[in-house]
Design goal:
- The protein is α/β, with parallel strands linked by helices.
- It has five domains: 59 residues, no CATH class; 77 residues; 179 residues, Rossmann fold (3-Layer(aba) Sandwich); 181 residues, P-loop containing nucleotide triphosphate hydrolases (Rossmann fold); 90 residues, Alpha-Beta Plaits, CATH 3.30.70.360.
- The chain is 32% helix and 24% strand.
- A seven-stranded parallel sheet has the order 14-15-13-16-17-12-18, sandwiched between helices. A six-stranded parallel sheet has the order 19-29-28-20-27-26, sandwiched between helices.
- Helix 1 packs across helix 2 and helix 9 packs parallel to helix 10.
Length: 805
């Protein structure tokens, strides 16, 4: 009996945002499953797709094309993730294939290759020139660079002597290695050792190693070569003699292979507040009921131990656990603690892994070989099928919202998955988002409070340094008070963390004669000086230019660099405190694989006195010898045109303050600011989250912002500013016509940075409480977005936006 598959194809457009039906050939009927990744014909191409349903009758009036092949042994998508992809695509007003691609590791995304094939009308001479050396009668086009050959191909296509076909190349590759096993019995090896010549050094090394370490076999060849000090050529020789057997085996690329564990395996004695939190969560786990907890605990209150003990309970209940952290920088420390407690059943997923490592970890998870997954935002899609517990650490962090399509928020996906699995969701933070705290106030989440540190030490003393009144001995970036604090801390053999949320050396270059500022030619933003690479860089589009010696406008040599980034502060510290060792942690120093872990391990081993960095050092890090935290510029975030700017500033200052005094030594925090009376800075100084919550909620209510109102952001872009503005005003007219008077429509206005990557950006913000027609109107706009591409205008929709630039 015929079977038919409904397939979502790997083409992200409005026209293809639906299923296409294919007939399943009889030879593939047992292989094609719901969730399978398949190859299908699509027009003149062969492309990748995903099976979403299988049925016995056709819903298509014509003849269905045959599905060509199944790419994987096991389906990469389970029924839950398929259902979630449909729900997310509808909610986010995006393409379903875009959501599916986000759920999977990069190697499972299609890689298409183009081939040239002869047609029946090809001439003999053309065939000889193009295909005489091709066994399969097809010429791969991806790598061709020879100009004469390209001209011949173009001519053959024009004359219809050839055609181009597309094929799916599977990027997922297993890693294999050579394994060595013993080829003889132990008595034989002992006899051989007694009989060989004394100058047969390599043979003696091998035989002695085998006799001393028989338990190590079978052994990976590279390990044997290293430990026995042999060569692969020598092993080939003794294989011919039958001494050893060599075979190829598949191995996992293990990102945790080099992880060092330090006495963290046993559960810690809990404080009363920790015990109360653990019991509440464990009770919900035992009942196997869906429940959301907001674990609000001051910095250093021991939230991680609560996480670990509740994960242990979930595993005891034969359930799996998923834990998210907001930054790759936090992953090594958290993974180390989780791995120490739960061993090899832990997998890790984040963008810092190589594609191969990520694929192997994902495959272990998909094969249900692990019980605990730790990762950053995209790990929320880990294909665990028996989830009992989801934990989101630092749940307030904006990094949980993806700013590229599909623009999902990991917290909202976690709530969906918790409901699907009837699992427990724990949201942890010292500074919960206003949205989460408001839900806890309304009893939609259960609030668990932790107000004390297990060490009984008080929270660190926080002092504000008013930069309008401060003393400066040499320059205006570091006050004398902060310099003195750093020197005194280092003198006591203690460590310092310094926060400056701006990378680079100087953030703009100014001509002092004509006032010219060197800007990116593609964006409305000044170029940042990076002294280590001697380049001016755009942090938005990546454009780079050499450092000019003269003003590009008036040719004056009186050019000066203003503003300070982490590179400049590092240089200043080395000049002011030459006896100190400084580690800098920002995007520039952590680009290489393992960069975060290398820096944090070095600082944890006290190989440096000062850790200087951007916001990635502000949260979650736990170093017992850090007693001073310095904030170099507390005001930078307050100037952003974002209604969350005060909340983000309060969160950042509270979180970074919590890095000080986390063990037996008291901590201190010095915050440099030009706005010492701003409520966010004052309340962060006093560790007063409750006061900030009440103050900010009143401001949000007055401004009609979340959590009192919902938001939708529409962004229109074009290389022509007039076109972007024109389409944006058309959209506003449609919104005014279709939505109720209760909806507030702001804009269109130019984005704060109006031009990025040669495109102009205009935005419309919709505020509403209940708007039944909104989604149908936004779907109409999404359809218009497809039509408007003819005019080279793009329209982007962002449900619940977190960034406005």
């Amino acid at each position: 009996m015929s079977k038919f598959a409904d397939v979502i194809v790997d083409v992200a457009t409005q026209d293809t945002n639906k299923t296409f039906q294919y007939q399943i050939p009889s030879q593939l009927s047992d292989l094609v499953k719901v969730g399978s990744r398949v190859e299908v014909p699509f027009g003149r191409r062969k492309i990748q797709g995903f099976v979403v349903t299988i049925k016995s009758t056709s819903s298509f009036s014509g003849k269905s094309k045959n599905l060509l092949s199944v790419i994987d042994e096991f389906p990469p998508l389970n029924s839950e993730l398929l259902h979630l992809s449909d729900q997310l695509a509808s909610h986010l007003l995006t393409y379903r294939i875009s959501v599916i691609q986000t759920m999977l590791p990069n190697v499972l995304k299609a890689n298409y290759q183009r081939f040239l094939q002869p047609t029946d009308s090809i001439s003999e001479s053309t065939y000889q020139q193009l295909f005489q050396n091709q066994e399969t009668k097809q010429l791969p086009l991806n790598q061709i660079k020879d100009y004469e050959l390209i001209k011949l191909i173009q001519k053959s296509l024009k004359n219809k002597e050839t055609k181009i076909v597309y094929q799916v190349k599977n990027k997922a590759k297993d890693k294999v290695t050579t394994q060595i096993d013993l080829g003889l019995g132990m008595p034989v090896y002992q006899k051989l050792l007694a009989s060989i010549r004394s100058n047969a050094t390599n043979q003696q090394k091998l035989l002695k190693f085998i006799i001393k370490n028989p338990q190590k076999f079978p052994i990976i060849q590279t390990q044997l070569v290293k430990e026995a000090e042999l060569s692969t050529n020598f092993l080939s020789e003794v294989e011919k003699k039958g001494w050893i057997k060599r075979s190829k085996i598949q191995i996992n690329r293990n990102p945790l292979a080099d992880l060092t564990i330090q006495n963290e395996a046993s559960a810690k004695v809990l404080t009363q507040e920790q015990e109360t939190a653990v019991q509440a969560i464990n009770h919900a786990l035992a009942k196997r009921q869906k429940q959301v907890f907001l674990l609000e605990g001051i910095t250093g209150s021991g939230k991680t131990e609560v996480y670990l003990q509740t994960i242990a309970k979930a595993l005891t209940n034969q359930k799996q656990a998923l834990m998210l952290v907001p930054e790759i920088a936090l992953t090594p420390q958290m993974v180390r603690q989780v791995f120490a407690r739960f061993g090899a059943k832990v997998a890790v997923l984040h963008s810092g892994l190589s594609d191969g490592e990520r694929y192997d970890e994902w495959r272990r998870i998909n094969g249900q070989e692990v019980d605990v997954v730790v990762g950053a935002r995209s790990a929320i899609f880990a294909p665990l099928q028996n989830l009992g517990l989801i934990i989101i650490d630092e749940e307030h962090e904006s990094t949980y919202k993806q700013e590229e399509n599909p623009k999902y928020h990991a917290r909202e996906v976690a709530k969906w998955r918790a409901k699907y699995h009837q699992a427990v969701l724990v949201l942890g933070s010292a500074t919960p988002s206003l949205e989460s705290r408001a839900r806890a106030q309304k009893k939609r989440y259960q609030l668990l409070l932790m107000t004390k540190r297990p060490t009984q030490l008080a929270l660190p003393q926080v002092d504000l340094i008013d930069m309008t009144q401060a003393h400066f001995s040499s320059q205006l970036d570091l006050s004398d008070e902060l310099i003195t604090g750093i020197k005194q801390t280092i003198a006591k053999k203690q460590q310092v963390i310094l926060l400056l949320n701006r990378r680079g050396y100087a953030n703009f270059m100014l001509c002092r004669d004509c006032g010219y500022v060197l800007k990116c030619p593609h964006c409305d933003i000044s170029l940042t000086l990076h002294k280590d690479t001697q380049q001016m860089k755009c942090h938005y589009c990546g454009y780079e230019a050499s450092i000019p010696k003269r003003c590009l406008e008036c040719q004056s040599t009186r050019i000066k660099f203003f503003g300070s980034g982490t590179q400049k502060i590092e240089e200043l510290l080395q000049q002011l405190i030459p006896e100190s060792t400084i580690l800098r942690m920002d995007v520039d120093t952590t680009r290489r694989k393992g960069g975060h872990q290398k820096i944090l391990d070095a600082f944890g081993n006290h190989e440096a006195d000062v850790l200087l960095g951007t916001q990635m050092i502000a949260k979650g890090l736990d170093f017992e010898n850090v007693t001073l935290v310095g904030v170099i510029n507390a005001d930078s975030g307050l100037s952003f045109p974002d209604f969350r700017s005060s909340e983000k500033t309060f969160d950042l200052l509270t979180q970074v303050s919590g890095r000080a005094g986390r063990a037996s030594l008291p901590g201190k925090v010095l915050i440099q600011t030009y706005n010492p009376n701003h409520y966010a800075i004052q309340l962060a100084k006093n560790h007063n989250y409750e006061g900030f919550y009440q103050k900010e909620m009143a401001i949000r209510r007055q401004g009609q912002y979340p959590p009192y109102f919902y938001l939708n952001l529409i962004t229109v872009t074009s290389k022509l500013e007039q076109k972007a503005a024109m389409v944006a005003f058309k959209i506003k007219s449609l919104l005014k016509k279709e939505l109720s008077d209760q909806a507030l429509i702001l804009g269109p206005t130019p984005q704060a940075v109006t031009r990025l990557k040669d495109h102009y950006y205009y935005q419309i913000l919709i505020k509403y409480k209940v708007e039944p027609k909104l989604y149908s109107v936004l779907n109409t706009i999404k359809t218009q977005a497809f039509d408007s591409k003819k005019d080279k205008v793009n329209i982007y929709l962002d449900v619940d936006p977190y960034q406005f630039n």
